[in-house]
Automatic annotation (TrEMBL):
Residues 114-294 form the Mammalian cell entry C-terminal domain. It comes from the Bacteria. This is Mammalian cell entry protein. It holds the Pfam family MlaD.
Length: 491
């Protein structure tokens, strides 16, 4: 018996183990995350558990990071239902210098084409890492060294550039100030896009790398630029004529600007007035933009297009008591006649205002057009209820009950007391009307109650001893109750 029971338990445990194993295999095969490995030259700033994104949307996490010689293998876990193109690239993205980094898979899968299978590997030719700050400092140091003083040269390139710039800017301070003001506006626009500094540094790295790889082409460009400079020097007279014509054109442009200056200033002034009004009402505009979308959405949600009715009510609390609303508003005015005016308003307009008090708007929502079911889409619980049917068979009316509020039953029997009807309870004769029974040694008149001693200083003498009086009628024992009838409980 014990062996058979143990065998049954082992069989049940084996079946449960098989079911759990099958469930784990099915989940891993159809619902588990895909594993993708990406090879990077370095994995600085990323750690296991960081995000894996596609088009900025999180689709997985980094499972592990393992160095392999001169490269680093980063294992990614991506959701099973997110397809990744077979030619996808992996990039370590740093939003700024201090924020956490993540791995971006690009481009996103469109609608067709091969996808990366499970355990796929993205090689070094399809991965990229951001430029580190140390590399930027190294390049800046190299640039400053190249621009520094050189042996055998009078001054540095920077000093000669500054001297040439000073000579060129001499006497042009006003124009330089205007130029700097305009450049400050450009710098402000660029500052608003400072979030893309990582992309800028990355593109700068690409540009510097391209210059380094194109050293021969750069030398050829310099030679051709020298040839162009020689040609320009030989065509100095033609350039002088072109500059003269350009000066004439500049004069015409200045004349046009001077002729339309008043109209332009007027339009700018009007535009300034409009913008000033917007600035003055900034709080109102912000409040409107903050409240209006919710108000419109609430109004839209109140109406149910399926039933053509409202699912809520628009409440106007002030109109639940219009007398207090209107007359109270009049009384709140800061002048000497406001209280008296409020009293007159309540006295003369109160009866009329009380007739228009309401809590909800006094009209319903009844649109002309609303969705409704066509006759062929209506399913009746009984076919006879459909138009043209017999309407169903009538049921017989219910039989009214014999005893109800409209047809009372027989009078209920009197309550059981254990005495004959009309017989008072024992000891209650003195309480019956018309009786003259009083307890012994008790005054029965008002004078005896007020003067119980009868005007004597001491207590009155007691009566002569005689036979003991018999019990009063009120104190006589009650007659014995008759024996209970059969089926009646005793008292």
């Amino acid at each position: 018996m014990n062996r058979s029971r143990v065998g049954k338990w082992l069989a049940v445990a084996l079946v449960a183990l098989l079911v759990v194993g099958a469930a784990v295999l099915v989940r891993q095969a159809f619902f588990g995350q895909k594993t993708i490995s990406a090879l990077f030259t370095s994995a600085t700033g990323v750690y296991p558990g960081d995000d894996v994104r596609v088009s900025g949307v999180k689709v997985g996490t980094i499972e592990s990071i393992k160095p392999e010689g001169t490269q680093t293998r980063v294992t990614l876990k991506v959701d099973h239902d997110v397809p990744i193109p077979a030619d996808a690239k992996a990039v370590i993205v740093a939003q700024n210098l201090v924020a956490a980094r993540y791995v971006q898979l690009a481009p996103a899968y469109r609608s067709s084409g091969p996808t990366l299978p499970d355990d796929a590997v993205i090689g070094l030719d399809r991965t990229a890492v951001p430029v580190e700050w140390d590399q930027v400092k190294e390049q800046l140091m190299r640039l400053s060294t190249d621009l520094g003083p050189q042996s055998g040269v009078d001054g540095t390139s920077v000093s000669r550039f500054i001297n040439s710039t000073a000579d060129a800017m001499a006497g042009n301070g006003d124009k330089l100030r205007q130029t700097i003001s305009q450049l400050s506006g450009v710098a402000r626009v660029l500052a608003e896009g400072s979030g893309n500094i990582v992309d800028i540094i990355k593109n700068l790295q690409t540009f510097v790398t391209a210059l380094r790889d194109s050293n021969q082409q750069v030398v050829q460009f310099q030679n051709r630029l020298a040839t162009l400079t020689s040609v320009v020097d030989g065509s100095r007279s033609d350039l002088d004529a072109a500059l003269t014509n350009l000066s004439v054109a500049v004069v015409e442009v200045q004349r046009f600007v001077a002729g339309t200056r008043d109209q332009t200033s007027e339009q700018v002034q009007r535009l300034a007035n409009v913008t000033q009004n917007l600035v003055d009402n900034k709080m109102h505009i912000e409040q409107l933009l903050h409240v209006a979308p919710n108000a419109f959405m609430n109004g839209y949600n109140i109406y149910n297009p399926d039933t053509g009715s409202a699912v809520g009510q628009f409440v106007m609390n002030n109109f639940s008591n219009p007398v207090e609303f209107i007359c109270g508003a009049i009384g709140a005015v800061e002048n000497t006649t406001a209280p008296e005016t409020a009293k007159l308003c309540s006295q003369y307009l109160g009866p009329a205002l009380r007739l228009i008090n309401f809590n909800y708007l006094p009209f319903p929502i009844s649109p002309y057009l609303m969705p409704s079911a066509s006759p062929e889409q209506i399913v009746y619980s009984e076919p006879g209820l459909a138009p043209g049917g017999d309407g169903g068979s009538p049921t017989p009316p219910e039989i009214p009950p014999s005893i109800s509020a409209y047809n009372p039953g027989p009078e209920p029997p009197p309550p059981f007391t254990g005495r004959e009807p009309g017989v008072p309870p024992p000891g209650a004769q003195q309480l019956l009307p018309g009786g003259e029974f009083y307890p012994p040694n008790m005054p029965n008149t008002v004078s005896d109650m007020l003067n119980p001693t009868g005007g004597q200083s001491g207590p009155p003498p007691g009566p002569a001893p005689g036979p003991a009086p018999g019990p009063l009628a009120a104190e006589a024992p009650a007659p014995a109750a008759p024996p209970p009838a059969e089926g009646t409980p005793p008292a």
